Amino acid sequence: MIAAEVRRFLLANNKESILSWMREDLTDTQNVPVLPEGRSLEKSTLFVATVTSFMGPFMISSVNVALPVIQAEFKISAVLLSWVATSYLLATAVFLVPIGKIADIYGRKKIFTSGLILFVATTSFLIFTDSIAMLIALRTLQGLGGAMIVTTGMAIVTSVFPPARRGRAIGIYVAAVYVGLSAGPTVGGMLTFHFGWRSIFLAVIPFGALSIFISFRHLRTEWRGNPDEKFDWFGSILYGASLVALVYGASLLPASAAYIMVGSGAAGFVFFVFYQRSISFPVFEVRLFQQNRVFAFSSLAALINYAATYATTFMMSLYLQYVKGFNPQTAGLILVCQPVMMALFSPVAGKLSDKVEPRKIASAGMFLTAAGLLQFVFLGEGSSVFYVAGVLVLLGFGFALFSSPNMNAIMGAVDQRYFGIASGAVATMRVLGQMMSMAAATVVFAIILGSRPLTSSDLDLFMVSLKTVFTIFTILCAIGIFFSLTRGELRANKRL
Question: Which of 2, 12, 71, 125 shows its CA 20 to 30 Å from the CA of 144?
Answer without folding.
Answer: 71
